[in-house]
């Protein structure tokens, strides 16, 4: 009897195929259902913050404005005459100096010599008053005083030219036009899509916004310091003008005192019979007053110009500091932004490698 096993074999093969197919389907289903990894943004914390502004105030030096110096030789003459006593003991040096004055005065118009002979304190006040114009004769004499011989010019007051006044003509105000700083393009480096790219872009935007806020804080500090320094320069200028006004009054008062002393010496000379010396002393008083008027005017004009130049120089320094600090803030911002750009580009590249974004 012949026995066959075909049916059992076929059944076994069929069952094996079903098991294998089920296994394959099970594996495919597991791969498809696995969750995608959560996208992450790069860390921008390593980007350096902007350093705070270091903006120390510049050193301020007060200008040296000088003064009108009295003639030491004239003071000696006055002292010599006032101390002559009843004997009329006046030094030969005093007599020689006054003789030089007399010879020069004889060349002046008769009207000027008459004014010298009748000189009193009221006439002196009128000469020293810058608001009143000199008459033509006195104005002409004042102009001649610029070319006096040494023997007479040493008897007159002179301006004490300080280094600031000497350098006045060489000084120049430093100006600068309004300057604007380009702080770069604050837009992100590139546009990306997809969740990974969007997270990266958002983190970058947050960092740039933070850096921008730091930059604006620093710029506000710089601007506030600049505005304050301009105001302080104006205030110093006003104070210096007030000081110069007082200084001018003091110098004028000192000159008036010297002129009064010369007149007193003339009266003393008259009282001891030295009428020629008395005339020469009055002539010296007139020349001294005219020269003092010119010196006061020239000195005051120079000082006012010096004060104006100093104020402008201080404001120019404030502007220079402002622009230098703004340039530094711009450079600091760009350095940090470059770091952020580099991290952004690396993050976008990683997004692309993960299959997210462009």
TrEMBL record:
Q: Tell me the first and last residues of the signal peptide.
A: 1-31
Domain of life where this protein originates: Bacteria
Q: Where is this region: Disordered?
A: 29-75
Sorted alphabetically, the keyword list is: Signal
Keyword Signal present in the record's keywords: the answer is yes
Q: Where is the composition biased (Acidic residues)?
A: 43-59
What name does the UniProt record give this protein?
Uncharacterized protein
Organism encoding this protein:
Salinimicrobium marinum
